[in-house]
Amino acid sequence: MPDTRYHWTLLFLAVAFTVAVGWIVVPPLVESDLGVVQAFRDAFANPYSSGFAVNTLFTFAVLCVWVTYEAQRRGVRRGWIAIVVCLVPGVAAGLATYLLIRHQKIGPQTWRRR
């Protein structure tokens, strides 16, 4: 995949995810008197939503560990921005953000057979 398509695809997915979260989550969040507390409770309302919520929380934790480790090891500056982005729209946007930041520093990787 060419670099330009890679960048635009990641950017599109991050923006689309952010819009979807805004469309699905923000209206009930605004209507709720308890706001974020009620949203967190609702995420664990049944076994299915609890599974998705736990998956998201653990994915966020893994992403934080990876971003912290790799940004330091490879010298990727501003990797912390991806962790902040995870807190507002979500992990998908944070991952896309880190991949874009990382690509600017590291560049395209070439894989060779050994």
UniProtKB/TrEMBL annotation:
Keywords: Membrane, Transmembrane, Transmembrane helix. This is DUF2834 domain-containing protein. InterPro entries: DUF2834 (IPR021362). The chain crosses the membrane at residues 7-30, 50-69, 81-101. It comes from the Bacteria.
